[in-house]
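Appendix B, Record 12. Input sequence as logged:
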Amino acid sequence: MSLKIAAESWPKTPSETAEDNKSVVVKEYDEERHKVAIEKMESLCEVGQRGKTSLITDLMGDPICRIRHFPIHIMLQVAEYGEEGEVVGVIRGCVKTVARLSSVYVKVAYLLGLRVCPTRRRLGIGTKLVEHLEEWCKQKGAKYAYIATDCTNEASINLFTKKCGYSKFRTLTMLVQPVHAHYKPVSSSIAVVRLPPWLARSMYNKLLANSEFHPQDIGLILSNKLNLGTFMSIPKRYLSKWDPKTGIIPPNFAMLSVWNTKEVFKLQVKGISPLAQALCAGTRLLDSCVPCLKLPSFPDVFKPFGVYFLYGLHMEGKNGRFLMRSLCEFVHNMARDDAGCEAVVAELGQWDPVREAVPHWNKFSWAEDMWCIKKLEKYGPFDWITSRSSSTPVIFVDPRDF
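Logged structural output:
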């Protein structure tokens, strides 16, 4: 078996690759036929690498649950190989309408979850899956397609930029705050208010209208069952004077929404030595026994865990950074009370002013999450990719994409 696997990983001649490519058929996902095979294949595929030893593995319970929250979606496209129909690849995709400029919306396709079986790579399977999904997206009216990948994932970047015609577009920062055993202190001088969905939608449409990728269906996101709420922090002295029904926005505030990704998928860190795991467990034990010390304990990420994803982060006023930080601590305490949630995550544009106010661990976070984009229609009056005027410091990251 080991010799066979090693042989399959050797580079193949162009004629061999072309013959193998003919043996690959892309089909739409069929739960009865494909679900078990996809879960088995995905367990072999690593999602991301942070550092030299730690490996983050995506443990999905339902292969289609990530994209079923979009109004237009395709469950999955699956690549089958050979006469027996071996599942060797999978890709997900969805179409949505987002802002490219202020009040200018366009239909875009988001491609995610591309996986190719490790023993069947270098056969053009990834390219074939991307091409099939792009064609489906064009039929749904998408003008652009984009993907997100770790900037260190050279194989993924080369596939999309060199073989599929994508261009590097935007670079974002992923900020990760571990959930500790103790509660984070929230200043008694501020009030945290939960906004009703109608008010949150109205405020986002006013405040983030100029941000790129702001979804036209923001109301559907805010009313989704995975959305845990939209929260605003304001100084308590404004609380008695502010009436949300008037639509007037306080001069000092911070706001964000929370998405419960632990109900969709789980992560697990692998590749860490037993000694390192024992040391991490020791920090949790000490933190739990002596919470008054407020030690930065290391969460148990070596077993499957979930995360809260923060989106729609915005702050204004001279106290904006303090209010945003306090609001993030409030969400940390929400996660602390939710068993199995070990981290709070936010993804922001590199130049977004909110970035400096979000608490995070540098060792858990990474500075460059690469977004690549492609124009699906050859002709059109506007090219989002080359237009400099479309670039803004604020990029709205749809929680359904995470």
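The mean pLDDT is 83.
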